[in-house]
Amino acid sequence: MGTSAYTKEYFCLRGTSTYARGYLAVQLVDVGLELEGNEEEEEDERERHRGRRRDGDREKKKRGNGRRRRSSRGERGEEELQTRVEKRERGRMKKGRRDPEAKGREREEEEEEEEERPEIKSCKTAKTRKNIKNENARKMEEEEEERNAKKKKKHGSAKREREEDRSKCTVKEKAREGRRRKHKRVETSSEPETSEEDDLKEETEEREVRPESLSPEELEMLKEAVEEKKKLVQGLRGKPWPMKKKLVTLRESQEFVEKYEGALGKGKGRKLYAYKVMMSKKWMKFQRDFENFKTACIPWEMKIKEIESHFGSSVASYFIFLRWMYGINMILFCLTFGLVMVPEALMGRPYGTIPRKTVPRAEAPSAMDFAVLWDFGGYAQYSVLFYGYYNNQRAIGWLKFRMPLSYFLVGVGTVAYSYMVVIRTMARNANESGVGDDNSFNFSWKIFTSWDYLIGNPETADNKFASITTSFKEAILEEQESRKDDNIHLTRFLRVLANFLVLCCLAGSGYLIYFVVRRSQKFALEGLETHTWWERNEVNMVMSLLGMFCPMLFDVISALENYHPRVALQWQLGRIFALFLGNLYTFIIALMDEINLKREEEKIIKFNITTWEASLYNATGSENSTAPPVTFHPADVPRGPCWETMVGQEFVRLIISDTMTTYITLLIGDFLRAVLVRFLNYCWCWDLEAGFPSYSEFDVSGNVLGLIFNQGMIWMGAFYAPCLPALNVLRLHVSMYLQCWAVMCCNVPQERVFKASGSNNFYMAMLLVILFLSTLPAIYTIVTIPPSFDCGPFSGKKRMFDVIQETLESDFPAWFSKVFSYASNPGLVLPFILLMVLAIYYLQSTSKSYKEANVDLKKKLQTQNEENKRKNKLAALKAQTDLEEARAATQTAERQKNINASLQRQHAEEEEDLGSSQRKNGRPPPSVRHQDGRPPATRAPVPRTLHPDTHRSLGYLPGGGFPQQREPRMHRVPSLQRH
Amino acid sequence: MVSPAIALAFIPLLLTIIIRCRYYFVLFYRAVLVRIWKDCVTGLSREERAYQYVLTHATPGDPDSILDAFDVWCSKVEFISNIGPKKGKILDRLLMEQSPLTVLELGAHCGYSTVRIARSLPLGARLYSLEMDARNAVIAEKIIRLAGFDDDTVELIVNPSDEVIPLLRSDYGLERLDFVFMDHWKKCYLPDLQMLEGSGLLGKGSMIVADNVLFPGAPKFLRYIRKSGLYEWKVHRATLEYSKGIRDGMAELVYQGIK
């Protein structure tokens, strides 16, 4: 508790080096003046400073003080163990010291008390624990105690001493420390032991009574302390402390609050309070648990988070997209399953009652073969899975369910719902990314935003670190090269070349598919049975293979272009999109050809059937007119080819083969490769893991596009095969698990991990395009091609959408159909469409103007900022010059005044030096400046008041008095130059 | 029979593989095919051919010119996996910073790296160079002497590393190794490192540099140093010597000792 310690602390607390330097300078002058500092004055000064400081940042200080005090008390505590008497003396000393000291000191005492209380408590708890432990020992002791009852008189005084909390603690601590010692002593000499034993007992009794025994002031203090701790916890996040300190503080204050919150209030109120506190804690815990539960309820959330932490957000974005897709498909599935498939299966005519619901006689023997079922022929074809199975009965079952209408509306509804969802999501995403990143602060953006905080894997973090470094290097290089554009031609050339190569690739693959499709048509005309499995599945195989290998080639080619990975990903996506689209449309065109073929066939069969029926009629009629009409088994009735089912089958097959290819690629390309790399590495001549084959990276673009095109096929085929959404849900479900597993087990993080926040809307845009492109052919077939005559819910109608008209006519009142017919009149529809176009145009133009206004405002803001900055700078400059002028004036005046007093002149120069050093540092320290600004008359005592501290601190500096005396002169030179 | 169209669909895959692995194909051609062909034609070993070239194209007594001649031969004529000029510069820098007095080189091959290290050693330093293969050692000896380093500076030991390292203290009177350069069999990196640790020749601050840790690669070695905690380490990323596209690395380890 020496004053030197205080000065040291004080000096340290002055903080910045500017302060220190300033004080040094002042102190150097005053070295000779006041060697013996007045102790009291010093004390006063210290206290004043302390108070001021505490007002400013009290909490911060409190922690520091508390810690320091606690440590000092720790030392003290050990001393206290020695004798209680010494302790009491100390307390008296403290009291004595407290009297002369100011209010600031008192507050410190309070804090000290607060700090001490937990210590006491802990002492007590330790005590009770020990009591239990020492049960046996105590019994023995008690016996001895009885024997030495007369000694108790002595203990009376000891009890009195114990009234003070602190001494209590001492006893306990002493007891704790000397526990082992005591045990020994119990056996040897009981005399001192019994006294301590008594203490222990009293202690336990007192502990129970204690909360009531607290005085109101103490309670108030406690309450305040608890409040303060709470405040500290709340504001902890904003404190500029190191994390470790924060954690320690948090834990300590939480413990404190927990311990003493319950002790507040008295009797009944106290219990209520404790109950309230307990309930609020329970409630918080419940809320936290509920949050966890909510997170757990989001499907695959944890999985995706884990992947995100390992692979960065670009890979996670794929999985999020997959999940989103799963949700949409779930709804599509519910629609088709609940409104089409289940009603037909439950309420429609059962299998085998009518020809369209029966396997033809010719196919019957092989209808249950696996190969046929796998191709979705046989029993699978004649089931609710496909269009052809549905009957054209207007209403089925006791519910009078309008099956054909429902079928049509669900077909339209799925597409409409998809459009709605995609567009809504796009709009939401656009809102979120509406801010956009400026290119004006490229490096700042890079510095502050490039880290991906979701990464939780050291390897990925390494990769991310490396990628940020390289991106910085590249950005710097780009900045340098943007001025001299000799390299840009090469880059442009390479980019053009890459695109040319990609185009060649696309053309080649397009031609190959075209060729294959033509060949397959030829095969179909010749009859499929004469050809091998390979030739029959040629189209699917080639499409899958091209879809698999061409992206790889694109990837290699895109290395030429040297784009940023995010841009490169978009290019890659675009290219694969073109490839897939080409493949898909070739497939559709081939399908259209096939539809036309089937319709030719249908015409012939229709004709044949009428002749067959006529002959049947004739046969029966010629034999015996009274005979009952011959009933044929439905399997024997000849029937048309039913192109709708064929289309549905094609799509289902495509989906299945696509899924199989994806999974097989996954297993071979990723898993097998990973296994080989892993285990062949033990006996290979180079490092397979770090070197050439390595583990595969997750191919975001390919997977996303696979998903999107898969969805496109679902949209296209769902009308003709209601089972498609169900299949897709299954596929997505499996691929979610499979891909999650494959990513975590066989892939390595990308070398250039990058954030893919913006690309989400890119996916959506592609999805929208695909949605549009896939609904086109579906709508085309629905609108232009008449349905088959003997299969499907619309058989017998001229067009599929006639079902709506039919419903309107028969199920709605007459006026409604009239209104509808008026409404669907082109004279009304066309103006309406025109109005809509106009409205869209208007909205678009307004949004554009808003955007422009936004940009303008942004610019304005920026210029205003700049202006403000400049103004501030000017003002600061002006103030500085004014200050300098004023100082120069005072300095000259002072020089004239005290021309003879050399010592004082030195003073003045020192002052000036101090001022200049402050100016140099830009932000003048307020306290020193204040002293500086005083008139010269009062300046003389100022250094004196400062002196003791600075003077004391001098002792800690290396070097004696001589060099310090010399230093001012060295300082003077630059200051003179500046003036 | 597989239809030709399906076979055609594999063309993109083939192209991809060819483009991806072009450097490896080139390396295979230069390091294996050309070597076998020349061996058959000339009847000399690869190292002897290199020595002949260096003898005719370099100035005796000038290490730089010898190194240059080696580089030219390795990049233009045939391929020998020396440390190469690029990684060599890193090595030079490390040597300059460290200025070691006792250097151990594992795997002298035909003396390129020995000359490289010896020329950047401070005065009075001594380099122990190990080579297992006797024929290569003969060439290496000639090259070293051609570069003008005498027995006091460079001592060539013809023995496998796992036999020599335990004897370094007793037979060669070494107390401490300041610098160890590893460029021998990649499989021996780890056992030799452990043997060095066991022999007690490594002191605090001793530097170990291992070449080719990524290609052909020494995964166990890397895994060990990552785990052991005895070293401060980093991998200098570079490309394989005399080749552009194959990535390789040089591991730099500083022995910290047991804390």
From TrEMBL, chain B:
It catalyses: a catechol + S-adenosyl-L-methionine = a guaiacol + S-adenosyl-L-homocysteine + H(+). The chain crosses the membrane at residues 6-29. It is an enzyme of class 2 (transferase). Signal peptide: none annotated. Its EC number is 2.1.1.6. Gene3D superfamilies: Vaccinia Virus protein VP39 (3.40.50.150). PROSITE patterns: SAM_OMT_I. GO terms for cellular component: endoplasmic reticulum. Keywords: Catecholamine metabolism, Endoplasmic reticulum, Hearing, Membrane, Methyltransferase, Neurotransmitter degradation, S-adenosyl-L-methionine, Transferase, Transmembrane, Transmembrane helix. CDD domains: AdoMet_MTases. GO terms for molecular function: catechol O-methyltransferase activity. Belongs to the class I-like SAM-binding methyltransferase superfamily. Cation-dependent O-methyltransferase family. This is catechol O-methyltransferase.
